[in-house]
Amino acid sequence: MAGFDSPYVPGWDCHGLPIEIKVDQDLGPRKAHMSAVEIRRACRKYAEKYIDLQRRDFKRLGVLGGGTIPTSP
Description:
Layout: H1 17-27, H2 36-61
């Protein structure tokens, strides 16, 4: 609005406490016997599921923008 170039880059926020809470619920008592690395893998797998769903929906809806989808590491 002030004449600056600000390209739109579509992406999503798939990290943090909401995912950890959901994975905790899914793992239940098994979590007590898992290492931190295994728990992080479960969280990443859960997040990747939703990244794939969102990517599909972005394509279906024709979302256009600069950059590459996904923006998640």
